[in-house]
Amino acid sequence: MLRQYFISLALLWGGFAHAADIDKLKQQLEKSLPEVKIDSLQEVDNTGLYEAVVNGEIIYFSADGRYALQGELVSLASRTNLTEQRKVSLRKDMLNTLDEKDMIIFEPEKPEHTLTVFTDIDCVYCRKMHSEIEQYKEQGIRIRYMAYPRGGIDSASYDDAVTVWCADDRHEAMTRAKQGEELAALTCDNPVKAEFNIGRKMGVQGTPALFMESGQMLPGYVPAERLREILDQNSGQS
């Protein structure tokens, strides 16, 4: 009993010391980099490195805070990309916090998979994907559209996304706009800017960007039948 008590005490003290080390490092980094907001900070296994999440980006720091490393961290023993693994986890967490009232959703009668798609009104492959929306629905795929105007906030594609959102029938407006029809400009309170920033935080660089419920990203257009296969496989792994 006494031996078990001291083991438990040692583990508890180790936890306190570990937390203190992280707090000390975070304070040091925030002092050295006042323009940076650290969302989370944790030790990476027994590597001597600490992983910081900064605005969705992963940066590694030495324990003394003197060195920073940005790139892919790979475990040679398991051949696992630890950085990508962590990114997927962060994306999944972010997807779970999104509010569907800010999305334009195309839903089948019996949805079997949900896909979150960052889309641009004008991009060729976004239009191709939307032209096949009924095929995705037939495959049981629920499409949650979020706006990602590639031209940025002050662009025609941004204005197009706002117009679609502000339409009385967003589904119809989305379809007409993606067919190349020029809609009368509309303005209203909208989530377009916020969704664009969320997309950037999640690593979107081009459209369409497809996010599975697991947090994994598929960059670009994928035909409906092939997408269903990927989603089935991914669902079985998660």
Topology:
Elements: H1 2-32, E1 40-43, E2 49-54, E3 57-62, E4 68-69, E5 74-75, E6 80-81, H2 82-97, E7 104-106, E8 113-119, H3 124-131, H4 133-138, E9 141-147, H5 156-166, H6 170-178, H7 192-201, E10 209-211, E11 217-219, H8 224-237
Parallel strand pairs: 8-9
Antiparallel strand pairs: 1-2, 2-3, 3-4, 5-6, 7-9, 8-10, 10-11
Helix pairs in contact: 5-6
Describe, in short, the structure shown:
By secondary structure, the chain is an alpha+beta fold.
Strand content: 15-25%
CA-based gyration radius: 22 Å
Q: Largest sheet, described in full? A: 5 strands, mixed
Give the terminus-to-terminus CA distance. 40 Å
Number of helices: 8
Which spans have pLDDT < 50 for at least 5 consecutive residues?
A: 1-17
- Class based on secondary structure composition and strand pairing: alpha+beta
Kindly report the spatial arrangement of strands forming the biggest sheet. 7-9-8-10-11
Q: Rough shape?
A: globular
- Helix-residue proportion: 40-55%
Mean pLDDT, rounded to whole units? 88
H and E order: HEEEEEEHEEHHEHHHEEH
Description:
The protein is an alpha+beta fold. 44% of the residues lie in helices and 19% in strands. Strand 5 (74-75) and strand 6 form a beta hairpin. Mean pLDDT is 88; it is low at 1-17.
Entry keywords:
globular, single chain, 8 helices, four-stranded antiparallel β-sheet, alpha+beta, 238 residues, 19% strand, five-stranded mixed β-sheet
